[in-house]
Specification:
This protein has 5 helices and 4 strands; from the N terminus they run H-H-E-H-E-H-E-E-H. The protein is 37% helix and 14% strand. A 4-stranded mixed β-sheet has the order 1-2-4-3. Helix 3 packs parallel to helix 4.
Length: 143
């Protein structure tokens, strides 16, 4: 009986279970050896990844100041993807936020990508980004 069951019994929230001891079941030795030596052909692997059952969230953030960068980093630490819109922040504040988020993403083995004018996609290590946006490449070549 586990600790939780004992506690529940003590508090009177659960009735004690009666333990019945049974002797070993008679087993035919030939049948026992056959079961242990032959792999079961119809046996399926019932292992399910617990990570595939989580709800995936994408967070949209539009910070107004550098102080909100930590909130974005907390989302990344919780393995959530964050889209950061820096269009309403002064350029010096936007640079500070991107520097902070770049360090956070690096520490978490994630990635950060520019997906538009002052819009960035920050992902934890559990999310892979593929492809690029050609408009961004054209802007970078012009500068």
């Amino acid at each position: 009986m586990g600790v939780m069951n004992r506690f529940m019994n003590f508090m009177g929230l659960q009735e004690e279970e009666e333990i019945v001891e049974r002797g070993p079941l008679p087993v035919d030795e030939e049948e026992f050896e056959a079961l242990n030596q032959e792999p079961r052909k119809n046996q399926r692997n019932n292992v399910v990844s617990i990570h595939s059952q989580k709800n995936v969230k994408v967070i949209l953030q539009e910070p107004r100041s550098y102080d909100e960068a930590q909130e974005i980093a907390d989302h990344l630490r919780s393995h959530r993807t964050v889209v950061v819109n820096l269009q309403r922040v002064r350029n010096d504040q936007a640079l500070r936020i991107i520097d902070f988020l770049s360090g956070t993403v690096y520490a978490l083995s994630g990635s950060i990508s520019k997906i538009g004018g002052n819009i960035f996609l920050c992902t934890p290590d559990t999310v892979e980004i593929q492809g690029n946006i050609s408009e961004i490449l054209a802007e970078d070549l012009r500068q």
